[in-house]
Write a structure and sequence with these properties.
Order of helices and strands: HEHEEHHEHHEHHHH
Radius of gyration: 17 Å
Structural class: mainly alpha
Number of helices: 10
Number of strands: 5
Length: 221
Amino acid sequence: MCNVRKLAQMAAYFLGRADGHTMEHVKLMKLMYLADRECMDQYWFPISYDEYYSMKMGPVLSMTLDLMSNNEGAEAQADWGEWVSTKKGNNVSLQKDGVSEGDLNEIADEEMAVMNKVFDAFGSWTMRALIDYTHNELEEYEEVSGGRLEIPLKRIYEALGKPAGEIDTTLRCLGCAKPNTASSPPTTAAAMLSRLANFHAVPPPHPGAYAEKIDAILNAR
């Protein structure tokens, strides 16, 4: 289960840097996906922990799309709506006058640096250019004419060129945890990376040990 406040704060960061604090929801979705992908490349872990799908206009974060479309439950929509407006036409807007990095208390420092990097690289791109980029340059994306097709985490790691053995242990690690719940503090990506290196090097002797290791990662702030 995603931490909705973290999803909302990711979106709020990008909206806060956009002209007029407003953006097409498709462009926002692409920036959030690229931020998750970049964080997986640098630190092995995504930021959002959402689920990913190929859709006609490119890769999407599943729960984020539902939140943008007001299709989640009342509590989740309230957490989202504190930061992001309901969709008006094709646009969403920041609900606040502005947002500083200090306001985004669900985001670890390294995750913030990744989002900065992604916005610096892609924030000025048009929605159409981002759609073309995610269709043509991201190997994990599959063309679909309608509906949606899951993008497994494994395929993203493979597209990033990660070693097969480390992909497998990372997926087991992630599968034994429920990260980014609302009660969990942000975790520094540096701490996650150092502990994941040990996780890759020494496979734990029984499945429960994966949960113990990921708990240590998530509580390392």
